[in-house]
Design goal:
Elements lengths: L1 H27 L1 H21 L4 E9 L4 H16 L3 H8 L3 H6 E7 L17 E7 L5 H14 L2 H39 L11 H32 L4 E5 L5 E2 L4 H28 L4
Antiparallel strand pairs: 1-3, 1-4, 1-5, 2-3
């Protein structure tokens, strides 16, 4: 027990001694310490102040075509234009007005885990999230719609792909309608035949069992065609490859807590001071004995 007390006492003593040396070192280099604190805190406060007029929002997108990385790459290219303030180019590719294009300050894509969408190599079709930053909260919905339009039909390839897809859907729907019409004709003929006197068959009659199986198979095939027809009609009514399932209707200020910025800046400033006072200055003053 006495050994434990002695060990804890030594640790406490070493800790106090360490703090004393740190405070003594700061007092000896108080000017350097203040400069480092200013250098650490000031940029964060200025950045936080500049963000006070910015708003951020996000919306979730579901999709049927392509992969998340492709959409992530397109969003990354879009953000490059934003950061370089290519307003006219943004206006054209987003198909929106100049004021809306200028209000966009940042755009990023993330998967549902919060990872960068351009680095997501998965091929499943789980929805992804688009995060935007703007200086005008009234432009959030217009920007949301413009970005989705850009992702869906932002170039000739995407536009032609959608046109071909719609043509294929129409052709398949026509084919299914013909098949359903044929099946309906078979049903009508079968119903007419059932009105005629049919000889009583034994339960073990193989021909009757085969006919029942054929009817069941035809019904199942008809239902499969019907479900596929519903899916194709849904795509005709909603031809978009991208669907917004969670609108960016809630926006928050990008500004963070001033206290958190001061604390973070103080930590950065202290690291600067420790590097200068603990390594750089002793290295400059070092003399071989």
């Amino acid at each position: 027990m006495s050994l434990q007390n002695e060990a804890s006492g030594n640790i406490y003593y070493k800790f106090i001694r360490f703090l004393h040396n740190v405070l003594l070192n700061i007092r000896q280099h108080i000017g350097l310490f203040i400069i480092c604190m200013i250098l650490g805190i000031t940029p964060l406060l200025l950045k936080n102040y500049s963000d006070s007029d910015l708003y951020k929002a996000n919306f979730t997108v579901a999709y049927d075509e392509l992969f998340r990385k492709i959409y992530g790459d397109r969003l990354a290219k879009l953000n490059t234009l934003v950061q370089h303030e290519q307003t006219q180019t943004l206006k054209n590719i987003l198909a929106t007005d100049e004021k809306t294009a200028r209000s966009l300050k940042n755009v990023t894509g993330k998967n549902i885990l919060g990872d960068d969408l351009s680095k997501d190599l998965n091929t499943d079709h789980i929805p992804f999230v688009v995060e935007i930053v703007t200086d005008d909260s009234s432009k959030i919905i217009p920007l949301q719609n413009a970005i989705v339009h850009f992702l869906e039909t932002g170039d000739d390839f995407m536009t032609r792909r959608m046109e071909v897809k719609m043509l294929e859907n129409k052709e398949e729907l026509d084919y299914i309608n013909k098949q359903l019409s044929t099946i309906d004709t078979v049903y009508k003929k079968s119903g007419s035949a059932e009105l005629l006197p049919v000889p009583q068959a034994k339960p073990s009659d193989n021909s009757t069992t085969s006919e029942q199986q054929a009817d069941n198979s035809l019904i199942e095939f008809s239902y499969t065609l019907y479900k596929r027809k519903q899916e194709l009609m849904r795509k005709q009514r909603m031809p978009q490859n991208l669907l917004i399932i969670d609108d960016a209707i809630v926006s928050v200020q990008k500004k963070r807590s001033t206290l958190i910025m001061i604390v973070a800046g103080s930590v950065i400033g202290f690291i600067f001071y420790a590097l200068i006072a603990g390594i750089i200055l002793p290295a400059i003053r070092f003399k071989e004995r």
